[in-house]
Amino acid sequence: MPTLHGKVALVTGASRGVGRGVALGLGEAGATVYVTGRTLGGRHPEMPFLVGSLEETAADVTALGGQGVPVQCDHRDDAQTRAVIERITEEYGHLDVLVNNVWGGYEGLHRWDERGQAWNAPFWEQPLSIWNDMFDSGVRAHYVTTALAAPLLIAARGLVVNISFFAGGRHRGSENIPYFLAKNADDRMAEAFANHLRPHRVAAVSLYPGLVRTEGVLLAPEGAFDLSNSESPQFLGRAVAHLAADPGVLDRTGQVLVAAELAGEYGFTDIDGRRPRSIRPEFEAEGPGPESA
């Protein structure tokens, strides 16, 4: 693992899932990791069947060799986001890594009932709230957090990582439209951040995982996912840690990166010692049309 001792990171939406995994990957490398989310002591306020909390994530970060700092924050509220950045400013005065992970809109996928089935329904049959969930709790939150954190990132010549997915590349027919547009926006946002931050020696990238074994995915009915090439959440964290430790990371700024491909370049593996293959070719091979969604 690379060494990030003395580095400060902020991972948004880290009570569980991908955000938790990213925090653990940074903790392995010795970073101080602020982890934000709504679940501070107890269960998810809207999905109590999902386990995980900020205290648990922070404790595991510390156990791995870093320092975990749990901060309750609903990133739909700009004042709460500002308070997190102000706290980091007071306690450290710089921010080396910002990981924009917090996301809304997945609730249906975790229920596996009528609400979950609506995910794949035609857009006119989906709840209109899906749009706001993804853009307010995701895209907008990423923009606001980065804007508020920019002075700290510039002070550290740091790194911004937008967690995205292949859905942002092109629409393949019956894909969830708000999800496609939101992920596309996250990718373009990272590119735009890079343009503004490059003169200040701050890098910004969009990072794609493969199929991640999050708590929600593991709750799925048997056979819903083929987990043979899946990744632990911590695998993505190892990708972020290697990027953060790379003195040449500015050469990647503005790019869309894939965790499995970075594993091949940097030489790291998942927590089980395996190295998942990139699923980029599968998405690039799919043409438009419902049959390929």
Automatic annotation (TrEMBL):
Pfam families per the UniProt record, alphabetical: adh_short
Highest taxon listed in the record's lineage: Bacteria
Stretches for region Disordered: 271-293
Basic and acidic residues: compositionally biased ranges: 271-283
Cross-referenced InterPro entries: NAD(P)-bd_dom_sf, SDR_fam
Name of the protein in its database record: Oxidoreductase
